[in-house]
Design goal:
The chain has 13 helices and 22 strands. The chain is α+β, with helices and mostly antiparallel strands and 497 residues long. A hairpin with a 3-residue loop joins strand 8 and strand 9.
Length: 497
């Protein structure tokens, strides 16, 4: 086991001798790095996190927005009223707003957007978050009314997410490749496999951005990310994927660094419909075979927080439940014997081709071996192959993935969903959250939901990923924390000498 851990802890020193030129400021241009290139740039189609990281707030806007502090702010809706029974939302929309193609934004386009999101033909991966909306009305161009089938205390929050950005009916079909929004930047070119080029849009309705050009560079390899930053090719890495190199940048005056809080929970999801993962004792044994602190040290150079349920410390409702199943290999072996596997078992570990997932899988493989369980790692190309095999077809035993969407604990109640987990008690807890009429009741519901998952273990809860940010000194306005997975460039600017 320990030789495997040492291999996982080994750090490449290929950049040790790299000498970098002085990092000059780039005027009003900024280039940021993103590890995953999206399959499309429309965050309402499939709702991949990677699409929103490029275009949310930069190109597309919503009725409301989630700000850098995780608070709901007016955006294309300048104000709203919610009825006492929680069943009617009335939005007053911003006047004189246009899409990049010149089409006006109005209640008609907002109604189209939400009706499209909710339709039977919707491909929006977050559609379930908006299921409380029964009908949408547009009584006049500046007024939008939502009628709900039941109260949902989270609805306004979800409306600020990338999945709910407003789209123009005429461009909806082509937004994946030629996005048209109402935001401060428009997309000029997408060089697939490399970058997306954006520029400030003259017709923007709100406060003009300080930047004139923004480029999203897609660099998956952590070492290549570091090299690009050191050589001055890029300006910002808001989620640095090489934690073992992070300290180097903290000691370099040419850069600003920040260890921020993020919403990504890294979990090893299990197919609860397959043996032996349908047995709680097996899931408990696997969880108790894992030393989460050692895992974080091996994979993230110590940056990260152990979790015992599906919430990160960035959430206001976070509860530390790691004590439910602490590291205890001896007890894990007992549980396997009680479940009928005294000699362990073997399974296939389908791992997406992401550095954190591959590193984590190697460490978990070693931990599992301690209790007689053999995990055969099968790499799965991310996103295309992994999404098809695991997310859509549930054709897997175990996988590992970071869930980056904030407040997404409700995914465990979705059916179908790749965990294949079903719990009436958990669904009841989510219902209580929706029906909550005050913050105390809402918090109680979220704590109950966390505790149910911590006991049932539909996934192995591993760690919360921090938001390791590195950017050139002289830049301000970069998000230090990550209440929403985003590269929001709207407030970014170069400071004067």
């Amino acid at each position: 086991m320990f030789s495997t851990l040492k291999r996982a802890l080994a750090v490449s020193l290929c950049l040790a001798g790299l000498t970098s030129p002085a990092l000059a400021r780039s005027g009003t241009d900024v280039t940021f790095v993103q590890a995953v290139e999206p399959q499309g740039l429309d965050p309402t189609s499939g709702s991949p996190v990677a699409a929103g990281q490029v275009t949310w707030e930069n190109v597309f806007e919503g009725l409301v927005a989630i700000d850098r502090n995780g608070q709901i702010q007016p955006q294309l809706a300048r104000s709203w009223q919610i009825s006492e029974d929680g069943l009617t939302y009335r939005f007053a929309l911003q006047p004189d707003v246009q899409f990049h193609n010149g089409a006006p934004f109005s209640s008609a386009s907002a109604k189209f957007t939400l009706d499209r999101l909710l339709s039977d033909q919707s491909t929006n991966g977050q559609k379930a978050l908006f299921s409380a909306i029964e009908t949408v009305e547009a009584p006049d161009p500046q007024t939008l009314v939502l009628h709900l089938s039941h109260p949902d205390s989270d609805l306004l929050y979800w409306l600020g997410f990338p999945a709910a950005v407003m789209v123009d009916p005429a461009s909806a079909a082509s937004n994946a490749t030629q996005p048209v929004g109402t935001g401060p930047f428009k997309v000029d070119e997408w060089r697939k496999g490399d970058r997306v080029l954006m520029s400030a849009w003259d017709g923007y309705w709100g406060t003009k951005p300080a930047l004139s050009h923004v480029t999203a560079r897609f660099i998956a390899d952590p070492q290549a990310q570091s090299a690009a930053l050191q050589s001055g090719q890029v300006d910002i890495i808001s989620e640095f994927a090489a934690p073992e190199l992070f300290d180097r940048f903290t000691k370099d005056a040419r850069f600003t660094t920040h260890v921020g809080s993020g919403e990504m929970e890294v979990v090893a999801g299990m197919n609860n419909a397959r043996k032996p993962f349908d047995d709680l004792r097996v899931r408990q044994a696997l969880q108790m075979s894992i030393d989460r602190s050692m895992l974080i040290e091996a994979v993230k150079s110590g940056y990260g927080t152990p979790i015992g349920t599906h919430f990160s410390p960035a959430s206001p409702y976070y509860e530390d439940l790691t004590g439910e199943y602490p590291y205890d290999p001896a007890r894990a072996r007992q549980l396997l014997a009680e479940a009928g596997y005294p000699d362990g078992f073997a399974f296939t570990f389908k791992v997406p081709t992401r550095s954190y997932a591959q590193r984590s899988a190697e460490i978990l493989q070693a931990f599992f071996q301690q209790i007689g369980v053999t995990a055969t790692i099968e790499p799965s190309t991310f996103p295309a192959t992994w999404i098809q095999d695991v997310f859509k077809d549930s054709n897997y035993d175990m996988t590992i993935i970071g869930h980056a969407e904030p407040m997404d604990i409700g995914i465990y109640a979705r059916s179908p969903y790749y965990f294949n987990y079903h719990s009436e008690a958990f669904s009841a807890a989510l219902s209580a959250i929706s029906q909550a009429r005050d913050e105390a009741a809402r918090a109680a519901g979220y704590h109950k939901a966390q505790e149910i998952l911590a006991h049932d273990l539909p996934a192995l809860f591993l760690y919360s990923d921090p938001k390791l940010g590195v950017w050139k000194a002289g830049l301000t306005g970069v998000w230090e924390n990550g209440p929403v997975p985003a590269n929001d460039m709207t407030d970014v600017r170069w400071t004067s000498d």
